[in-house]
Amino acid sequence: MPRNNGDSGEFKVGTDTRKPIVRRSEAFLTGLEDASSVTFISHVYPDPDGLGSMLGLAHLVKARLGKPTRLTRDGPISRAENQAMVELLRIPLEPIESVSFAPDEAVVMVDSQPKTGRHNASIDMPPLYAVIDHHDTTGELDGIPFVDVRRGLGATCSVVASYLMEQDIALPSRLSTALFYGIETEVSGYPRGASTLDDSALLYLYPLADKDLLARIRNARLPQRYFECLIQALQSSFIYDRLIISWVSELPQPELAAEIVDFLIRLENVDWALCAGTFQDQLVLSLRAATRGSKAGDVLRQVVGKMGRAGGHDRRAGGSIRLPSTSQSAIEETQAELRRRLLKFLHIDEYRGQRLVALREMLQNLQS
Ligand SMILES: [Mn+2]
What is the pTM for the complete model shown? Predict the structure, then answer.
């Protein structure tokens, strides 16, 4: 089995060791020759990187093989920017639960790996043909004919853009915009976590992208509940030494935890930020680290342990804990256990907690 772990990635294809693999895009397309059609899947709560990757690969398959393709959506598109992306770029998505699969259909998973707890587990589908991803969290990859997982990369869209560039396929502006935005959302934090491949893809896509549409997506209108949630997150934030923790009851949508934590990690003198909020019967978690080499995905996975599931990248991680019940006491007990475990893991004394916004300030604001 040819294996190329060159740029910190995992790449394998087929079982023929005689033919040298020149281009990954070529190998990806060759394996699809017998498929009747190709369906693309990503993770729950689809994000721009997953959406752009599906759109880009579907374009590649249509342009080179002329086969029908389908893009799916696992769960709702909840973030306002992501909704704007789907609407403005007219990305056709079929809900995964209503898709029926043909036996000779190829299924390609992007921006995620199997058995990582990031998918609707009840979907019955043919075995995966391919997994293309950039997450540190390893899933079950055994037996999958085509695997291109590059952990050093900022975005899956960068891999997809590199396939399209290798194949020298003309990119419509709508697709260029989607791929550009997919990469941008993954590498816009600091430290960026971008590789040279991410940057060359951005450089290639920018002139082709529709900058007005990009601006409309980035500045998508936000519902009132967003701001209500934000003030609650700020008022519930506690600083423990170099860690800030924010609790939100009833997130209007689970991805808001990630937005809040992206904001909180910018607090000076803080190395770690966690936002935990309830959504349905789950406590949704989002963790950020301010410095390189923090292994946030591993940290959150160890802290959460058997309470739930977690994973992610070096400085960004997410996860969830299923609440034993949605009663206030059950939520508070789960929060306390999570806080205790995280503080212990980071060697921080629990009694050093201080509010981000002093109670007196909050009361004065209410009276004024
Ligand atoms: Mn991604």
Answer: 0.90
